Amino acid sequence: MSLSGRMELMGQSLKDGTKNTTISVVSLSLRLISGIVLGLVLSLILQVLMDLGQFSMIFLTVLFCGIFLRISRDWIIPKILIFDLIATLVAVILRMYIYLAP
Question: Is the distance from CB of 68 to CB of 60 less than 8 angstroms?
């Protein structure tokens, strides 16, 4: 294989590595943001219902975030975005229910 062929192969390998790394970082950051928001919401609900302290809220946030990260380990970016959309719609419906409830 000539020098130009090896350089072309190395350039293609670098391009593929950059693409895979970018997709992994974006996917991890989306999963982390979704997990933190979900953990905060669930821990706040439990804190209000059970009258827990600040340390318990932080612990539950980390716990729920870790559980979500573990469940969503194999999810791709569109699946994470669909989950976020459904979670947002559920939150809007619950908010509307709270406002309309007597």
Answer: no
Q: Could you tell me which of 41, 37, 45, 28 has the C-alpha nearest to residue 80?
A: 28
Cα gap 10→21, rounded to integer Å: 16
**Rounded to a whole number, what is the largest CA-CA distance in the chain?**
78
Q: What amino acid is encoded at 54 in this protein?
A: Q
C-alpha to C-alpha distance for 78 and 86, rounded to whole angstroms: 12
Does the pTM surpass 0.70? The reply is yes
CA distance from start to end of the chain: 78
**What are the residue boundaries of the structural domains of the chain, listed by start?**
27-100
> pLDDT tens for residues 41-82?
999 989 989 988 899 999 999 999 999 999 999 999 999 999
- Burial class for 11, CB neighbours closer than 10 Å (0-12, 13-18, 19+): exposed
